[in-house]
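S.,

As promised, the manganese (II) ion run. Input:
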Amino acid sequence: MNLQELENSWIKEFQKPLIIAGPCSAESEMQMLETAERIRRSGANVPIFRAGIWKPRTKPNGFEGVGVIGLNWLKKVREEYGFKIATEVANAHHVEAALKADVDILWIGARSTVNPFTVQEIAEALKGTDKTVLVKNPVNPDLALWIGALERLVGQEVKNLGVIHRGFSTYQKTKYRNVPNWQIALDFKNQFPKIPLIVDPSHICGNRTGLAGIAQEALNVGYDGAMIETHCNPDEAWSDASQQITPEVLAALIKNLKLRNLDI
Ligand code: PEP
Ligand code: MN
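Predicted complex:
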């Protein structure tokens, strides 16, 4: 099997645009349940709830995630509010724990996609799974590395794949936290039109004001959905506070998004 032969039928289960929302990090059971409850109450069409429980932080001695206890909170979110649940995995132990908890969607973070040994380890731990695995672009603007990560997964018979465009690191001062470099994601899309492509405006923008514009720009060029960090109390978030939004703001943002009219 190769990347071109994947059916990626997992995405057909969802309406477009597919919205994945939830906090950057799981912090407490209460924070998770309140965020999930308010997303549901807002009426927004959000089928997948995300939360990082192992957090790759730039500097040491900060909050690095609550760890496996967060899996219980994710499962509670699924049971009580009917979301599918998603979390980041960065090594084989994470994969093992996430599969044991029957997490629906696993994603590989930008700092892991850059490292072929890490991706290989994750891929081997996932061998043959029918779970959906989403691969964020590497932090550096390297399309081959992004594709290589997918090839490593396919090499281990992981068949339900998608990618997340979260922008690329730069030392230049720009209005973005991670510059979108749209062309890289579009080159990916041209090469692999059947692999679902999801935008992550939160990590591209690094602020709240740019989110809607980036999400709309992505839908305009045919992306399948967006992953948007959403927190019950964004200002007090333990990670990525400046880019997270409340469930109510998320609902308004989604309401204003327009799907590309494919007939044009
Ligand atoms: C995240 O989704 O919270 C995260 C750490 O993202 P990235 O890997 O894109 O930096
Ligand atoms: Mn984050």
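The chain has a mean pLDDT of 96. The pocket of phosphoenolpyruvate (ligand 1) is lined by residues 24, 52, 56, 109-111, 136, 166, 203 (CB under 6 Å).

- D.
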